[in-house]
Amino acid sequence: MKKILLIQTGGTIAMSAKGEGVELDPEAWSDLLVKQIPELEELAEITTHPLFFEDSSDLNAKHWIELANCIEKEYEAYNGFVILHGTDTMAYTASALSFALQNISKPIIFTGSQVPMSSIRSDARRNLINAIEMATKELHEVGICFNDHVYRANRSTKLSIGDFDAFGSPNLPPIAEIGLNIELNSNPVVNQQSFINKAAFSNEVFVLTVHPSLNPDFLNCLDLSRLRAIIVRTFGSGNFPRKGPFNLLPFFEKCRDSDVIVAIVSQADYDSVDLAKYPAGRAALEAGAVSGADMTLEAALTKLMFLLAHHDSKKDVERLFTNSLAGELTN
Known about the structure:
Shape: elongated
Radius of gyration: 21 Å
Distance between the termini: 39 Å
Order of helices and strands: EEEHHEHEHEEHEEEEEEEEHEHEHEHH
CATH architecture of the largest domain: 3-Layer(aba) Sandwich
Number of domains: 2
Number of strands: 18
Mean pLDDT: 91
CATH superfamily of the largest domain: L-asparaginase, N-terminal domain
CATH class of the largest domain: Alpha Beta
Largest sheet: 8 strands, mixed
């Protein structure tokens, strides 16, 4: 029987539904696993590890590194890993680990729930059973298991607040689908190199969402000396205001002159940024911007944070950002 390490980080799945609202209940979650889901022992030999208990909104790069270090420490002792995590930032943490943990030859599966496990109508039971079973399969990457699907971590995004089908992978089909049978839609990569943990992330990144009537004067207040990259969430395939008082091109040029990377992603979930398609995108290219193609915001942000922590050269970061490192974009 395979050995699985179940790592608890908090989130709704670890909350108590008693009283008027929900709150984290560190004491109850392990008992719930044994009492409510005894059949987990039929799937694998499970060891639980309460790493930390936090609402996922409070998680940051420090927690990503702690989680990556935990997996590195236990990597040889287990056949797979399941991480219980809040849904709000699950795609960020999972994407970050997809870049940090390299040459993976074991499944690393994130899951959680929309409703606490202690509630009668919770999705936690199904998600946890599915995640544990997926962690016993030949899946050599970081994934998110939710509502009978497994998505590549760095292709995933949270799409719904109140639906059990909370996550999606807009530009890549699920890597596994769970029904009467489990269908794996990706071939496991056979890594010739040894597993390595390179978890390190820079916080010198800012995310800007373009909107009608965005006043560029507000952007001039940004201290570019403290930034190394700005992710711009544009309209469509890379469009933004470029005429009159709302023209953003001067700001992009200011970033270029300050050696700050401008990376363009789309506010639309599906399809890809194409900066050569429209005049605005072409102007952004001339101002030094780079395309995030079909990356999710979560992948683009964590990838830049990872690259900036490992490379001093702006050109190196821009080159690596536009190439697929862990299956996060379609080349």
